[in-house]
From TrEMBL, chain A:
InterPro entries: PhoU (IPR028366), PhoU-like_sf (IPR038078), PhoU_dom (IPR026022)
The species this protein was found in: Chelativorans petroleitrophicus
Function: Plays a role in the regulation of phosphate uptake.
Any one of the GO CC terms: cytoplasm
Keyword terms of this UniProt record: Cytoplasm, Phosphate transport, Transport
GO biological process, one term: intracellular phosphate ion homeostasis
Protein name in UniProt: Phosphate-specific transport system accessory protein PhoU
Keyword hit for Transport: yes
Domain PhoU: 20-108, 125-208
Gene3D superfamilies documented for this protein: Phosphate transport system protein phou homolog 2, domain 2 (1.20.58.220)
Localization annotation: Cytoplasm
Family: Belongs to the PhoU family.
Oligomer status and interactors: Homodimer.
Automatic annotation (TrEMBL), chain B:
One example GO MF annotation: phosphate transmembrane transporter activity
Pfam families according to UniProt: ABC_tran
Cited PROSITE patterns: ABC_TRANSPORTER_1, ABC_TRANSPORTER_2
CDD domains in alphabetical order: ABC_PstB_phosphate_transporter
Gene3D superfamilies the UniProt entry points to: P-loop containing nucleotide triphosphate hydrolases
Database matches in NCBIfam families: 3a0107s01c2
Assigned protein family: Belongs to the ABC transporter superfamily.
Superkingdom to which the source organism belongs: Bacteria
Name the UniProt record assigns to this protein: Phosphate ABC transporter ATP-binding protein PstB
UniProt keywords, alphabetically: ATP-binding, Nucleotide-binding, Phosphate transport, Transport
Length: 234, 272
């Protein structure tokens, strides 16, 4: 892409990109740490996630401010306009991912380590891994300007949904087997639900990023299947 | 968005474009030469009725030249030669049978610098209707003056001093006076060449609002160097570069997702 005649305009846009990348890195780190803290009953780590959320909010505020100033100063057009509006939206989704990670971290302590069956932690661990990959990839594809990779990435969200349904079923069986598992399993269920929602925010980010990069909307996705909705109101 | 809402939006868009799809002026294969030098190359452009068409592009790309073709203002430049065809309601305006004075009444023009005649406000607006014999009595002329000034959004500011010189008005008022002068002969098309470049933001906002109101009754073609202005006032935007029309389309698309690389570079401020 050619440079702007006014070079500080390029610097302003690069600054937005850098903030998105930072927020993406932080969102990924928080998601990883929160699940880890929950599965290992690591209170100190959980605490760190909670305090990271403050950093995340500050970054979002900074991004919003930079974006608004850029609009006022430069009145961006075409791809620049899309980049600025897209950055504001992507930052909002990244901030929500931070919130969800924080919510997971807050459950640590409520779940006793011993009460968590190994196969169950394994399932959630796998799901967390899938979500984490998505969070890291979406920002990378955006920064590296790879719209086609974003299409594939969005389609992979379905796998997370399928996995979530499996975790949900598994948890139900444990709870039926032994009512003493109910407390722990409820917290884990909550954790799984939050991971699934992080996946949804990644999907939003992918859609926004695709629009920024190409100027067209991602084709509408098939309605997604969430069997758990039929059983409980989520 | 659900399917119903989407269908409704689609419907509204279709209705809007059906209402405004009529082509008022059509340029086909237009070339313009100043002596040996060619300034426009093979330009095809449709100007739609009751829409504002913005012409954008870097300095010297031929915007003013094209605008002047639309009411044969180029005839006044000796070395200028125009080939190709331009029609108004399907009629060739370069046909030898066309009365150029009448053409310029139907296709009026407002210039970059407000240029009122050194006469009273009243006489500035009365000039056109007089030479075209549009009023048969003084009271009829008075009525034309009043509606023209009203449509130009100037009436309230000048109604008590119609006999004062037009040159005594502020720049913004002078430009609206020139718009009133253009409107007074009931044109069908109004051409504006950077009408706001000599105005402050408030006067500019007034003129822009006026342009939007005028669209009800007139077809407007405006040359502007402000991308934001083009985005605010026009429905269609045409991008010129080095004498060629490189892209034309709905204004919203031109400023969010233009197709041509040169348009992208120009609207985002990346031109070398
Ligand atoms: N009267 C003239 N005699 C000779 N050449 C002319 C004349 N008017 C315009 N040109 C040339 O034709 C080309 C197009 O000029 P034009 O005034 O149409 O550009 P423009 O797009 O309106 O530019 P600007 O944005 O600076 O007003 C330029 O190269 C200019 O030098
Ligand atoms: Mg010009």
């Amino acid at each position: 892409m050619a440079q702007h005649i006014v070079t500080s305009f390029d610097e302003d846009l690069e600054h937005l990109d850098r903030l998105i990348r930072d927020m993406g890195d932080l969102a990924a780190a928080m998601t990883k740490a929160a699940t880890r803290a929950l599965l290992h009953a690591d209170n100190a780590l959980a605490q760190r996630v909670v305090s990271n959320d403050v950093v995340m909010d500050a970054r979002q505020t900074e991004l919003d401010k930079s974006a608004v100033t850029l609009i006022a100063k430069r009145q961006p057009m075409a791809q620049d306009l899309r980049a600025v509006v897209g950055a504001i939206r992507m930052a909002a989704d990244l901030e929500r991912i931070g919130d969800l990670a924080k919510n997971i971290a807050k459950r640590v302590g409520a779940v006793g380590k011993s009460a968590t069956p190994h196969s169950l932690t394994h399932s959630i661990d796998t799901m967390a891994g899938m979500v984490l990959d998505q969070v890291q990839a979406v920002v990378r594809h955006y920064v590296e300007r790879q719209p086609n990779a974003l299409v594939e990435l969005r389609d992979r969200d379905e796998k997370i949904d399928v996995h979530y349904t499996a975790v949900f079923r598994e948890l139900l069986t444990y709870m039926m087997e032994d009512p003493r598992n109910i407390t722990a399993c409820t917290h884990l269920l909550f954790c799984a639900k939050n991971l699934e929602r992080i996946g949804d925010h990644v999907t939003n980010i992918a859609e926004n990023a695709y629009y920024v990069l190409t100027g067209s909307q991602l084709p509408v996705q098939r309605p997604k299947l969430d069997e758990t909705q039929m059983t409980v109101d989520s | 968005m659900n399917m119903l809402a989407e269908a409704a939006v689609e419907d509204a868009i279709n209705r809007d474009s059906a209402r405004t799809e009529t082509v008022k002026m059509q340029a086909s294969g237009v070339n313009v030469f100043y002596g040996e030098k060619q300034a426009l190359f093979d330009v095809d452009l449709a100007v739609r009725k009751n829409q504002v068409t913005a012409l954008i592009g870097p300095s010297g790309c031929g915007k003013s030249t094209f605008l002047r073709c639309l009411n044969r203002m180029n005839d006044t430049i000796d070395i200028c030669r125009v080939t190709g065809s331009i029609t108004l309601d399907g009629e060739d305006i370069y046909d030898p049978k066309i009365d150029v004075v009448e053409l310029r009444a139907r296709v009026g023009m407002v210039f970059q610098k407000p240029n009122p005649f050194p006469k009273s406000i009243y006489e500035n607006v009365a000039y056109g209707p007089r030479i075209h014999g549009l009023a048969s009595s003084r009271s009829e002329l008075d009525a034309i003056i009043e509606t023209s000034l009203q449509k130009a959004g100037l009436w309230n500011e000048v109604k008590d001093r119609l006999n004062e010189p037009g040159t005594g008005l502020s720049g913004g008022q002078q430009q609206r006076l020139c718009i009133a002068r253009a409107i007074a002969v009931s044109p069908e098309v109004i051409l504006m060449d950077e009408p706001c470049s000599a105005l402050d933001p408030i006067a500019t906002a007034r003129v822009e609002e006026l342009i939007d109101e005028l669209r009800e009754n007139y077809t407007i073609v405006i040359v502007t160097h402000s991308m934001q202005q083009a985005a605010r006032v026009s429905q269609r935007t045409a991008m010129f570069h080095l004498g060629r029309l490189v892209e034309e389309g709905p204004t919203g698309k031109m400023f969010t997702n233009p197709e041509d690389k040169r348009t992208q570079d120009y609207v985002t401020g990346r031109f070398g």
